[in-house]
Amino acid sequence: DRDQTKINNRxxxxxxxxxxxxxxxxxxRPLRExxxxxxxxxxxxxxxxxxxxxxxxxxxxxSKYKYDKRKKERVAKKNQKSGLLKEIRVSPRxxxxxxxxxxxxVRDFLKENDKVRITVVFRGRENQYxxxxxxxxxxxxxxxxxxxxxxxxxxxxxNTVFMMLSAKHA
Length: 170
Prior knowledge:
This protein is of the alpha/beta class. The protein contains 4 helices and 8 strands.
């Protein structure tokens, strides 16, 4: 994970587009002249756009540049959406009010554009009545039809029945 940024004598282009520390463009200069300007200011010449022709270089303090770059990456990582799949687990014998509460959570998740997996979990002898799970999910489908699209229809797996929902797009 080494930093690939070229600085000072590692820059190979014969001429560079030079940008001052405050962001003002100095223009296209021979590499030697650009290095001289950076040295007289006690700063580094950093290649910020190596693919441009000629490459774009900025006069900055390299440690400050690295710090700012890491800070930007941290902010970007923090703003990334990580929890895209939420799961709500219910029993086939869930009470009507409890189901309402769970479905309110589902509505909140869908507002946040998360996908929701609703899982009906069977314990012990409940496994003989999987049809109750399918009926419950059909009921949920009807109750959420105004806000949710069915991404995956109810399906069974061992001691569970589940379905996937995503936010309805107008």
